[in-house]
Every structure is written in C-alpha cells, then in structure tokens.
Write a structure and sequence with these properties.
homodimer, 19 strands, globular
Chain lengths: 468, 468
C-alpha cells in the first residue's frame, strides 16, 4: 500500500499529502460525526494536472478514490470506508477564481473555492452568484456541483446544476476533459456536464467550472407572514407568484414549533409577530429598481392575501438588519433542533400542489405509530422541498428514540413515494441513502445508472459504495 | 423486409402505418428539401405502448429507427438515409396534454403536441409556457426536447432542457423508462433526462415530458433601438440587465441589411425608425404588474442608453399590434433572406463579451476571401447566439455561389473555435454537422459520447448516422 502513497507523494509533494491519523481526522469524519472513514491517505492536489496524476496512479493500481470538497455533506458521500485502502482526494487546495467576465455574466472557479468566496468575487464585479445555503461559509463549489446543491435561491435561480455552463473534469482513467465553455447555447452532442453534476464523485472529479452570474438586484427585502395552515401557505405562494413573478426569490415555510425551538435555543431571538400562529412564511422579494419598489411589491402581495383571509398577520423588514434577522430565524432552525436533541431527518420533495396533503397524511400516519413525537417541519415551500424532521418526545432518552428511526423513515419515505415525490430533494444519496433508493427508484432507472457508471468508470474506482 | 413491416403493422394498425411513396414523402424529406430520405416505412404509433412494441421489433431485427417530430429541423436529424431499410417513427399522433397542474406550475405533454398548442394549453390555465420559436406552429415538443431547441425566450427562461422536469422515454431495447416526475428538486442519482434531451433520438425516443410553467406576465412590451455597432448593442444589454433584471425577456439584434431584406420582400413592412442606422435591437420587457410599469421600465432603459450616446434612436410599441409588428420584423428575416436567394447559414454562439469582436474579425476574414458577399447577421444577442449567414453577391447565380459554401463555413467555424464558441448553438448536429463537429470537439469528448451511446444503444439502432 505504501508504494501507492509514495507514488502519489511524487505527484503532489509533501504539501499535498496527509497520512498521520490526527491530520487526516478533519477529512476522515463528516462534520455531523455520522460517518467515520479510515483513508489510506488524504491527498490534496494543487492543480488539475496533479489530480490527473493521482487518478492515473489509482487507476493503474485499482485504488478507490473518494473526492471531497468542504466536507459539509449530510449523506456521507465524501467519506471513505473504514478499510484503510481508499484515497481521500480533497479539492480544497484548488481554490483560485480563474476568471470573471461580467459582460458574459460568468465566473470560472476551481472546485475548492468556498461558496461564500464565489459569492463575494461575483459581488466585487457587481454581479450576483445566487447559490446560497447554510453551509456556504465552508462548502466548496466542487462539492455543490457534485451534489447538485439546492438552498434558498432555487425558486428563482434553480439548483447548482442550472447555474453551471461548463466543467473541467478528471475522468476515472486520469484523462482531463476540458468542457470549460461559457456559452448559453451549445447543441453539439450529448450534454456531458449534466452527468458529472450530481454524481457525487462516482464518475470523475470536477476540478473547475464556469458558473452563471446574474445582475445584482437593487434591493432584497423580506417579510414574514403568519398563516393558518400549509394550504394557506400555498395560496399565498400563488398570489406572490402572480403579483411578483420573477421578483419572488424566496418562499420558506416553518411551523410554530420550529419557531419555538429557535426562541428556546437562541435566547436573543425576538419573535417577529406578537401573536403566535400555526405556520409562518418568509417571503423574499428582489427588485431591480429600488428598495421602495420592493417594499410596495411585498406589501401589495401581503395586502391581497390578508384581504382574502389567507394571511393572519405579517411584518415587513424595515431595514437590512431586519432582513438578516428574519433569515437568521429560518436558518437557525437546523441548529436549534440539534440542541433540542436527536431527530430523524428527511429531505423530501413532492409536487407543490400536493404539499399540504402530504404533510397532513404523513403527520397522521406518524402520530398513529408514535403519538408523542414532535414534527419539525420547515423548508423551501416554493420548490416543494420540505425538511420533514421528527424529534422524539421530550421525556424519552435520545438513544431510545433513535431506535425508532428506521421505522419513522419508512413511514415518511413510503408516503413520499405515494405522492410521486423524491426521498432526497437536495442532499443527494451518498452512502446514507444508497440502499434506501432501491426501494423507490424503478429497477430500470437503476440499471440505466449502472450502465452509465460502467461506461465512465469501468474499473469502479470512483467513490465506490456511493449513489449506485 | 416486409416481414418487419408486417410485424409493426400488427402493433400500430393500419392508421399507424404509411408505406406508399406519396404518403411517406412529407416525412421522408425535410421542409427545406435539403435531405431526402427513403424510409422502409413511416410508422405513427398512437401510444407509448405502441412505440415500445415497434422498438422491440426493431431491436430484434436490428432495424434502424429514425424518430421524427414535426419535421421542422434544420440539420436532417429526423430524416432517414436513402437505403430503404430504416423505419421513420413519427410521434405526431401522440399529441395529448395528459395533465396540467397550475399550482405546481407543470404541464405533462406527449411528444407529438405542437409547441403552439402547449403554449395555448398553458395560457388557458393562466400560465406561461415560455418556449417560443419560428416553427412553433408545426414543431413538436418531442422534437424541441430532442434538439434542445432555443428560440427567443432563452435569455430569461433557458433552453428547452431547462424547462423539462421529467421524461418518459422508450429505450433502444423497447423498455419504457417512466421518469415523468414534476419535481423542482430531486437528487437521487444521475440525472438521466439530460442524456436524452438534445440527443436527437440517438439514445431513445422521448414519448412524453413534464414541462415547467411560469406565471403569465401582466404585460409584455417591446421597443426597437438603433445603435451604431454590435459593441453598442452589448452596452445596451448591460444597461437593460442592470435596470430591469429578470424583466428583460428578449434582446435580439439585426443589421440594417437584414432590415432592408425584410422591407424588400415583405412590402407591407414599415421601417420602425425614420432614419436608418447600422444595427437594431429589439428589446422585450415582461412585467408582472402592468403595461404602464413595463413602459416605464423600457423607457428608462432607453433613456439611460440615449444619454450615454449608445442608442441613436428608439421607438416603443404603443399597443399589442405594434409589439407584434416589431416581432414580425425580426422573425421575417429568415424568410426574406430565402427570397433574396441562396445563402450559407451558420448557427453559432460565442461568449457574449466577445460577440462584437467575433463579428468584426469574421466579417473581415470573409471579405478578404469573398469581397462581394453580403452578411446577413442577426440573432439572440442576449444569449451570445448569432445566425451568421452569408448571402452571395446579387449578380452571381446561386449555384455558382453555393460552390463557395464549404470554404465560407470553414472560415466561420474556425473563427468560432478561436473565440471558444459553438458551431451549433440551437439547431443541433443531425446529419449536417456530424462530420464537421469532429474538427472542433476534443477527441476525448467524442469518445465519452461514443461510450454513452454504446451504453444506452448497444445495437446502434437509434438514429444511426446522426450526432455521433
């Protein structure tokens, strides 16, 4: 084994290699400490040439390679197995912004660029890079691409896939595919980039990408509206889309229980509305003209919805600080539920028209089997994407509750399937859902995936045991 | 051979089969009469089950299948060879709108739906289906998907690929992949739909799709601005994007020579501006609020650009009839240049930031070799996509001029390659550019395409001789 590491060392140098256990730990274990791998070595190439050199050695020696970005994934997709035989290939050292073209509205970035830094580079050029998610301070754009990350901007700007125009990929045999095109239209054969995006490193290593930029809106404003039910949240969505069209850039729902968790675990939190209501919706409007224009837009949406009896109470941010407070409320839910104790997480999507019905049916089914659990339901309602999490009863010790996890997940995922939904809306499959997906995806589709895998990685060295 | 046709007849019945030459002609030859095929039979299945039955027979007998939609393609992708051994499979009889879900903003359509009918079905439900192109009155949505059609709405809404959420596909062995999901987020493995979209029927037959719908804008308004050069057109684009953001839904450029051809061959045409200028830009603004809002938006963009000396003259449509007149001006260019005589067409894209430079460099090179040709340059400037066509000198007979076609195309495509562009922005490869692309696409990328083709169509029966 050390022969392989020695050969890799010759490619990446001392700065690109970690082999002692303590140094490897931040890469070997995921941030939620759910998946503990034991890599043969952590390899940190500084260039696409070095990645190619490493993969060539791995192909020759049939050594498995697990690519990793910022190690913020939730499904263990970037973590090796415990055999001590797999190479963990971290892209974090390849973090240059190679080019920015404001007229073409594109930015060319290396895989290891931190998402927040891509946002900042775009902003410095007067442009918006709209991908935005909780882990943006450490997630890498290469990981975002490999998992087709979602987040809060999908409603208007799409998933990471929709923001990519071109890729540079090191293939499973170490050859480099230069597909770094910055074109809006290119119909010259199969669109190969879409194979690598969302493939979680099982078909090759994404080393750089050309991403789309957008005009920076003149103003972004938020409001929080209280509604009586998910049905009414959907009615509010329809009004907002009809009135505001593309200016509607955020539409997040969270239940009163989610709010109560944030208030409890973030004591500085002030509830936005004086009276509590069953559900809240965070609306974001982006306006190309001005803040006043955004304000009139959001107020007009809320006024119509209040008149129709859909919105029970609402508040519009008065300044940027209040905008940030509102977003913090939504974003702190994940952390708050962690402080509250263990919970069984689900990242699901269903057609938007069926969300309310899905929540009601699934809640009822769960409550029949587990009357005392607490539903922590929130998410990107405008995308049909719910983080449908189940927290244990307060009096039950976490380890006892977690014994119910598999049963709870079965109820939720079977319900998702009945509603023609997805059991992984934005987090991918990784190792966490690789078995689970076989219950829900047609056998023919899995077979097609296997054929694609065999065509692009015939030796099976790219991230084995993940996705397929 | 007739044994195969007899077996197919048993699947599709008399209504689904055409074998006499006169009946086959509308399918056998493309509408521009550039590609004349001789099919063994034209097969018109009425359902996905029938398509599957036909493909199973073709797979068993190793018979080639050429799928065809509305037969409006420009590259011969839907035309058989002349051997009399290939089956032409027309999807035109599968033309049901299977479902429409205004809350989910989706429409489920069969491949044979005419694009304009999909637009109308969406409109009847108060929604916008934004794909729009010259041939929309006869093009089928299945063909739009198979060629990843572009058109005039790409600037805001993307190509056909970006509008598809799910597909139903009959694979090369006759199995049916039901991927008809209507989800905004679904990260459960490789995104197979993107393989079939833009594959021009070489990997399977798309039989149905779930497409995205959008809120219907309250108003769409157009203006025409005269500018001195493509550079200034790009400056105008920047102003429009900054001021109007997503409200900017159309940005088309055409030269004064294009305008003169339309005026000449459509005598009812009135030029929009009193004085002629080198270039014109058609701007379209879609506004969620009102026509007045759209008008103030477009006037504000034009005012800033005039003040900066970028726009030399401009006119804004006063009513819907004028909006249509402006679009007709742009859309009649293709027809006008046909009346003017033969021309050598190119459908190219380059990064938007390099368009002006590309036009200048390529014009100069062409004029060096062919001093008297006339450039018919127009296109979707906001997407970096030019229809860069070359018409012969007036005094040279068409057949003499067309002897120069290959040389002219070589100059244009080599120039495109130097600007990191695409030699087929929105029309696909078909049979027309299958050889040509080998000069420009990296060998490794062609090899990847071949591997994908072999994985999904190992017998090579799906539209052989096209794309790859």
């Amino acid at each position: 084994m050390s022969v392989i590491v020695d050969r890799i060392a010759a490619v990446v140098g001392a700065a690109g290699l970690v082999t002692e256990a303590a140094g490897m730990e931040p890469y070997a274990i995921d941030w939620r400490k759910r998946y503990a791998g034991r890599p043969l070595a952590v390899v940190r190439p500084a260039s696409v040439r070095e990645v190619a050199g490493v993969i060539k050695i791995c192909a020759e020696t049939r050594t498995a390679v697990v690519p990793q970005g910022g190690n913020t994934g939730l499904q263990g997709g970037g973590i090796t197995d415990a055999s001590g035989t797999q190479i963990l290939l971290s892209t974090t050292r390849m973090n240059r912004v190679r080019a920015i073209d404001p007229v073409n509205n594109t930015i060319t970035v290396e895989a290891g660029c931190v998402l927040a830094e891509v946002q900042r580079a775009a902003e410095a050029a007067g442009r918006l890079f709209p991908l935005s998610l909780g882990a943006e301070g450490s997630a890498n754009i290469g990981g975002n691409l490999s998992t087709n990350a979602g987040g809060t901007g999908v409603l208007r700007y799409g998933n990471t896939r929709d923001l990519a125009l071109g890729l540079e990929v090191v293939l499973a045999d170490g050859e480099v595919w230069d597909g770094l095109r910055g074109l809006r239209k290119d119909n010259t054969g199969y669109d190969l980039k879409h194979l690598f995006i969302g493939a979680e490193g099982t078909l090759g290593v994404i080393t750089a990408a050309v991403m789309k930029l957008y005009p920076m809106p003149a103003a972004r404003l938020t409001g929080i509206a209280a509604v009586g039910s998910p049905e009414d949240a959907i009615r509010l969505l329809e009004i907002a889309q009809r009135q505001s069209g593309d200016a509607l850039t955020g539409f997040e729902m969270f239940s009163d229980f989610c709010l109560s968790l944030v208030v409890k675990h973030f004591p500085a939190t002030r509830t936005p509305l004086r009276v509590r209501h069953p559900q809240y919706v965070l609306i974001e409007i982006s306006d190309a003209r001005s803040e006043e224009s955004a304000r009139s837009e959001i107020e007009s949406v809320l006024a119509e919805a209040m008149e129709a009896g859909i919105v029970l109470d609402a508040v519009v941010a008065q300044n940027l600080a209040q905008v940030e407070t509102m977003w913090a409320l939504r974003e702190n839910i994940t952390e708050a539920q962690r402080h509250e104790g263990q919970n069984v997480k689900h990242d699901v999507s269903v057609p938007i028209s069926r969300i309310a019905e899905f929540i009601a049916a699934t809640d009822a089914e769960i409550r029949r089997a587990h009357p005392d659990v607490r539903m922590v339901t929130f998410g990107h309602l405008g995308d049909g994407n719910l983080h449908y999490n189940v927290a244990g009863p307060q009096e039950v010790p976490p380890d006892v509750f977690m014994r119910e996890a598999a049963g709870l997940t079965r109820i939720v995922h079977d319900s998702v399937a009945r509603f023609n939904g997805s059991i992984s809306a934005e987090h991918g499959l990784g190792q966490a859902k690789r078995e689970e997906i076989r219950r829900y995806k047609p056998a023919l589709e899995l077979e097609l995936m296997r054929r694609v895998k065999a065509a692009l990685d015939p030796l099976g060295i790219m991230n084995p045991g993940k996705v397929i």
